[in-house]
Design brief:
Number of helices: 22
Distance between the termini: 99 Å
Largest sheet: 2 strands, parallel
Number of strands: 2
Structural class: mainly alpha
Radius of gyration: 32 Å
Shape: elongated
Strand content: under 5%
């Protein structure tokens, strides 16, 4: 009986030609022309770069029986070269390597090195061919995805699944065929994700998850059914293979969490993330510096910060853990950059800024205002370092800082931060944007708190002007109400009354109900004047 995860090693074996279903053979020759490539786009496994026993693919024996035998290692070498080209973005070269590998798989005689004699040599040959064909087709689908040829990608990936399903159940490669099915399903799910068809994408990822779990079940079943004493090497190889399958399962769960987050199904996203974390902890109990684990924890922290969850203490625990882990990878001098590195693998990026923004949001919600401001300022510093920085995001961060200062009763600094936000918005969005109007309105409110009524009136007047230009009647009604209140406090009752009446007129035009807080407040103030 062949050992699990053991590559055969020393005997050459002739594989008996296997008649291929006509429809599948036609699809292969017509669709591929035998020139395509490779592994799952964003999560290929290292096991795919290791030579594995060959498997048979149906061929026309009467036309090709005169071909010389092919060694399985030649197919593996072409596949490995293709993976290398794929990783470097050289997709044409990768396709050529995969095409050559597919051509070799059509040879009716493929020999391979065997370490031990096998009790299922014929089935092993068939399973190897179909498994290797399916793997190459997944790789080809991945290339199409990178090139945004989504129709071709789906076609090839579906062919890969059909090839995988031809692997006999009794074959030692049956569980690996389930792994390839999972890869193909994930790639199809990725295609639908890129096409923004999130429901269909979710279905494919769910199917991939089922296939991942089945891989582990089949491995466990195969191991327990083996009779006689099990050598230490056999046990070790079994554990390695199970761990590899669990890594893929954890990755699938992580991808599903990201998809559910995109669909705003936060509870489901958290559930998938938590299961993935448990698997990662089981696998990497001694390797806390694994990058995929760091990215997972960063996502978990972000999900806990969601407004529908608000588990800020838990979120901060994850962020601090990310910080600690990254300091182990990059050294203590990088400790403060841990979330950045977790989000961007050491490169300053928009994801880096998002990670720190979520951390700052959590700190602000928990009342840790000083820490929140420090984190927000770190976002601004990284934003400035981006070659194509998002200036709108910078304005948003300045406004967040202003709100934190306001909660800390530091209105002077709140005003300074809001003024910086306004400068950015004027440069990026122009003089008549809705964001600029709202920022002027907030700044007016800050000045009102400091009883600087003159500047408060100026700010609300600028906001009012923009709302009127944009024909935002509700916004105009709000600004008239605020101006009426400030002028009333400053003693100018006539102008105050004019603004209150204008507020009511705009509220009526906006069809706001009398129960609207602004309308109700305006009515009360008008009534007090008349009394």
């Amino acid at each position: 009986m062949e050992e699990i995860y053991q590559l055969p090693d020393a005997q050459a074996q002739t594989v008996t030609p296997q008649k291929k279903p006509k429809s599948f053979r036609k699809i292969i020759s017509k669709k591929l022309g035998l020139t395509k490539q490779a592994d799952r786009v964003d999560a290929s496994t290292s096991r795919d770069t290791v030579a594995s026993p060959s498997r048979e693919q149906p061929v026309e024996t009467e036309d090709e029986c005169g071909l010389p035998p092919v060694e399985e290692r030649e197919i593996s070498a072409l596949n490995d070269k293709g993976n290398g080209f794929f990783g470097n973005g050289e997709f044409d070269a990768a396709l050529r390597m995969y095409s050559e590998a597919l051509k070799l798989l059509k040879n009716p005689r493929i020999t391979m090195d065997l370490e031990l004699g096998s009790e299922e040599e014929e089935d092993l040959g068939k399973g190897m061919r179909r498994f290797r064909t399916a793997r190459l087709l997944v790789n080809i689908g991945a290339v199409h995805i990178r090139r945004e040829n989504y129709d071709e990608a789906i076609t090839v990936l579906e062919m890969s699944m059909r090839s995988s399903k031809l692997v006999p159940v009794e074959s030692s490669y049956y569980y690996r065929s389930c792994e390839v099915v999972a890869d193909a399903l994930e790639n199809i799910g990725l295609v639908y994700y890129k096409l923004k068809n999130y429901e269909e994408s979710s279905i494919r990822y769910a199917d991939a998850l089922v296939a991942r779990r089945k891989c582990i079940e089949l491995l466990n079943e195969k191991f327990t059914k083996q009779k006689g004493p099990k050598s230490n090497d056999l046990v070790l190889k079994y554990k390695q293979e199970v761990s590899a399958c669990k890594i893929e399962l954890a990755n699938t769960l992580f991808y599903m969490a990201l998809l559910k987050e995109k669909q705003d199904r936060i509870d489901e996203a958290i559930m998938r993330c938590e299961e993935s974390i448990l698997l990662q902890k089981e696998i990497y109990s001694q390797f806390k510096s694994d990058r995929s684990y760091v990215n997972l924890l960063t996502t978990m922290g972000r999900l806990y910060c969601h407004e529908s969850v608000q588990r800020f203490e838990d979120a901060l625990e994850y962020f601090y853990e990310v910080r600690r882990m990254k300091s182990e990878i990059y050294g203590s001098t990088h400790t403060e950059n841990s979330i950045d590195l977790a989000s961007s693998n050491g490169q300053i990026s928009k994801e880096l800024c998002v990670g720190w923004t979520h951390k700052a949001d959590a700190q602000e919600k928990m009342g840790k205002h000083v820490d929140a401001i420090t984190s927000y300022e770190k976002v601004l510093s990284y934003q400035d370092s981006l070659e194509c920085g998002d200036e709108n995001n910078s304005a948003s961060i300045y406004k967040k800082i202003a709100e934190v200062y306001l909660k800390s009763h530091d209105t002077k600094r709140a005003i300074t931060s809001m003024e910086k936000a306004i400068i950015v918005e004027r440069e990026v969005q122009g003089e008549e944007s809705i964001d600029l109007a709202r920022s002027y309105s907030k700044l007016g409110g800050y000045y009102e708190i400091r009883e600087n009524y003159a500047n408060a009136v100026k700010c609300h007047s600028k906001a009012l002007k923009i709302f009127k230009v944009l024909d935002d009647k509700e916004g105009a009604s709000i600004e008239h109400n605020k101006l009426g209140g400030i002028l009333k406090l400053s003693g100018d009752e006539n102008k105050s009354m004019e603004h209150y009446m204008s507020s009511l007129w705009h509220a009526r035009e906006a069809k706001l109900p009398s129960t609207n807080p602004i309308v109700a407040d305006t009515i009360r103030n008008v009534a007090s004047f008349r009394a």
